[in-house]
């Protein structure tokens, strides 16, 4: 668990970063300042749930971004100035947001893979981290290719179930608004999870 002092010490660095991140989205310095402060406060209320400063920071950025987009959406509904594809397209996502999402997804994947049974975990890692083919794994582990396929299917189903329980992490994949373009074992698995 993170100490309050540790988080408070980081806040002076994070606030300007978050504000700078929100200004291009909102096109207004004061709105960005207000939402950045609100995002920190909302994240602070859940500080006991975070294991690392990077988790806290990433969550704060996501809260800030979501709040900014909600504000824009409400403004667009009342003024009918924003088209659906204009402000909310994934092309306008800053690269830092994709990086934060990838870091969270990779961390989740490592944790989830460790929950698989030993043989299943070994097969999954050989398939998706080492890029080995079914027949190669069967020879290496001295098992049948059908066992490799069934263990792969078991692993994918287990990870799907874990993903549904961890819906905060996968909300972006389910929404199809922010497709991950970064290549990693976690993103290749997203085809089966979504």
Overall description:
The protein has 194 residues and is mainly α. It folds into 2 domains: 1-84, no CATH class; 103-194, Winged helix-like DNA-binding domain superfamily/Winged helix DNA-binding domain (Arc Repressor Mutant, subunit A), CATH 1.10.10. The chain has 10 helices and no strands. Helix 6 (118-128) crosses helix 8 (145-165) and helix 7 (134-141) packs across helix 8. The protein is elongated. Mean pLDDT is 75; it is low at 168-194.
Supply the CATH superfamily name of the largest domain: Winged helix-like DNA-binding domain superfamily/Winged helix DNA-binding domain
Q: Looking at the chains present, what oligomeric state does this protein adopt?
A: single chain
End-to-end span in angstroms?
Answer: 31 Å
State the domain count: 2
| Percentage of residues in helical conformation | over 70%
The overall strand count is: 0
* CATH secondary-structure class of the largest domain: Mainly Alpha
CATH domain topology of the largest domain: Arc Repressor Mutant, subunit A
Mean of all residue-level pLDDT scores: 75
Supply the helix-strand structural class.
mainly alpha
The major beta sheet can be summarized as: none
Q: What is the chain-wise order of helices and strands?
A: HHHHHHHHHH
Query: Which architecture of the largest domain does the CATH hierarchy give at level 2?
Result: Orthogonal Bundle
Instruction: Specify the number of helices.
Output: 10
**β-sheet strand percentage:** under 5%
Low-confidence stretches: 168-194
Radius of gyration: 20 Å
Overall morphology: elongated
């Amino acid at each position: 668990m993170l100490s309050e002092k540790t988080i408070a010490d980081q806040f002076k660095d994070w606030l300007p970063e978050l504000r700078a991140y929100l200004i291009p989205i909102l096109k207004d310095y004061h709105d960005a300042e207000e939402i950045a402060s609100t995002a920190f406060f909302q994240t602070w209320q859940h500080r006991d749930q975070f294991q690392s400063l990077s988790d806290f920071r990433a969550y704060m950025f996501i809260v800030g971004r979501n709040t900014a987009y909600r504000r824009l959406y409400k403004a667009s509904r009342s003024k009918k100035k924003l088209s659906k594809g204009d402000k909310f397209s994934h092309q306008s996502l800053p690269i830092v947001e994709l990086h934060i999402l990838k870091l969270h997804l990779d961390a989740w994947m490592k944790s989830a893979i460790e929950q698989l049974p030993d043989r299943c975990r070994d097969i999954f890692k050989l398939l998706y981290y080492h890029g080995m083919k079914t027949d190669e794994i069967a020879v290496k582990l001295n098992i049948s290719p059908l066992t490799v396929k069934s263990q792969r299917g078991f692993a994918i189903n287990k990870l799907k179930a874990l993903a549904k329980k961890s819906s905060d992490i996968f909300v972006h994949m389910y929404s199809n608004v922010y497709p991950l373009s970064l290549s990693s074992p976690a993103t290749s698995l997203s085809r089966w999870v979504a």
